């Protein structure tokens, strides 16, 4: 048995089958992950999937994967999503929900799932509840990773990327051997425009505005589990595992 699923059915759509299957788990977890940019949600998703034997279902990954498929391989919802992204617009709820409905088999997966990047709005959360109720599936918890804003700003504004080979660094967390230079190809590293402190504060405000109602939605349903995203990724994962329902 594999330890990691290739997620073909999620990333490419229902016409594709996952080529690797995870070892079945005794206790499947069905979780939603929430967290502002910079809190390390992606890293937690990977660590938790490895520990729980579940699959990371990220809508952002579906949209990124859609770019490398041919038009014939993409569903109409995928083509529509790409059009919005090309224009720099947010993908509307109806299109996101169509993509998720196409991938119902992943929500039914006996190993459970970690939804990442979805739901992003209360309308998406309500639709997800309806989809899951129709499948007699219950969410176990919605993990809400929190970090003080100053720490988010420090984490994100320290990121540096190589414009040539796309390698990622962090001035304190993962510094290059020579300051400002890519270890892999020697190119001068750059900071993404939206990773600058002023831009990070704007992104955080936008995130808070959209996520507060979503957190409230799940708090009212007794599903919200708030976790401090401080410490190392391993420490945060251990903290998370302790807070999951039995
Ligand atoms: P992410 O990797 O989660 O940051 O997603 C990358 C991009 O995909 C976002 O900036 C959105 O444009 C789009 N996207 C991903 N998930 C959703 C969603 N649930 N609703 C709307 N747009 C989404």
Describe the structure.
This protein is α/β, with parallel strands linked by helices. The protein has two domains: 8-146 and 211-241, P-loop containing nucleotide triphosphate hydrolases (Rossmann fold, 3-Layer(aba) Sandwich); 148-195, no CATH class. Helices cover 43% and strands 13% of the residues. The chain has ten helices and seven strands. A five-stranded parallel β-sheet has the order 2-3-1-4-7, with helices on both faces. α5 runs parallel beside α7 and α8 (149-157) crosses α9. It is globular. The two termini are 25 Å apart. The relative contact order is 0.16. The model has no long low-confidence stretch (mean pLDDT 91). Adenosine monophosphate binds next to α3.
Biggest sheet strand line-up: 2-3-1-4-7
Termini gap: 25 Å
Outline type: globular
Rg, Å, rounded: 19 Å
Main beta sheet, described? 5 strands, parallel
| CATH class bucket of the largest domain | Alpha Beta
* Average of pLDDT: 91
CATH topology of the largest domain: Rossmann fold
pLDDT < 50 runs, ≥5 residues: none
Strand content: 5-15%
The total strand number stands at: 7
Helix and strand element order: HEHEHHHHEHEHEEHEH
Instruction: Report the CATH superfamily of the largest domain.
Output: P-loop containing nucleotide triphosphate hydrolases
Number of separate structural domains: 2
Alpha-beta classification: alpha/beta
CATH architecture of the largest domain: 3-Layer(aba) Sandwich
Unique bound compounds = adenosine monophosphate
What percent of the residues sit in helical stretches (DSSP H or I)?
40-55%
Helical element count? 10
């Amino acid at each position: 048995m594999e330890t990691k699923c290739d997620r073909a059915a999620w990333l490419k759509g229902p016409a594709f089958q996952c080529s690797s299957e995870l070892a079945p788990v005794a206790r499947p977890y069905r979780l939603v992950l929430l967290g502002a940019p910079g809190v390390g949600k992606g890293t937690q998703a990977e660590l938790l999937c490895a520990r729980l034997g579940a699959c990371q279902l990220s809508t952002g990954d579906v949209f990124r994967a859609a770019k490398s498929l041919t038009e014939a391989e993409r569903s109409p919802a995928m083509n529509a999503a790409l059009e919005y992204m090309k224009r720099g617009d947010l993908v509307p709820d109806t299109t996101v929900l169509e993509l998720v409905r196409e991938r119902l088999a992943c929500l039914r997966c006996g190993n459970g799932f970690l939804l990442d990047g979805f739901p992003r709005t209360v309308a998406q959360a309500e639709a997800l509840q309806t989809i899951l109720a129709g499948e007699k599936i219950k969410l176990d918890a919605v993990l809400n990773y929190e970090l003080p804003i100053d720490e988010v700003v420090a984490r994100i504004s320290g990121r540096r990327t190589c414009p040539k080979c796309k390698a990622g660094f962090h001035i304190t967390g993962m510094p290059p051997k020579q300051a400002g230079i890519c270890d892999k190809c020697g190119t001068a590293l750059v900071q993404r425009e939206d990773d600058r402190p002023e831009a990070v504060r704007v992104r955080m405000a936008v995130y808070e505005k959209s996520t507060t109602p979503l957190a409230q939605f799940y708090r009212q349903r007794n599903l919200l589990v708030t976790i401090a995203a401080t410490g190392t990724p391993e420490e945060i994962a251990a903290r998370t595992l302790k807070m999951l329902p039995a």
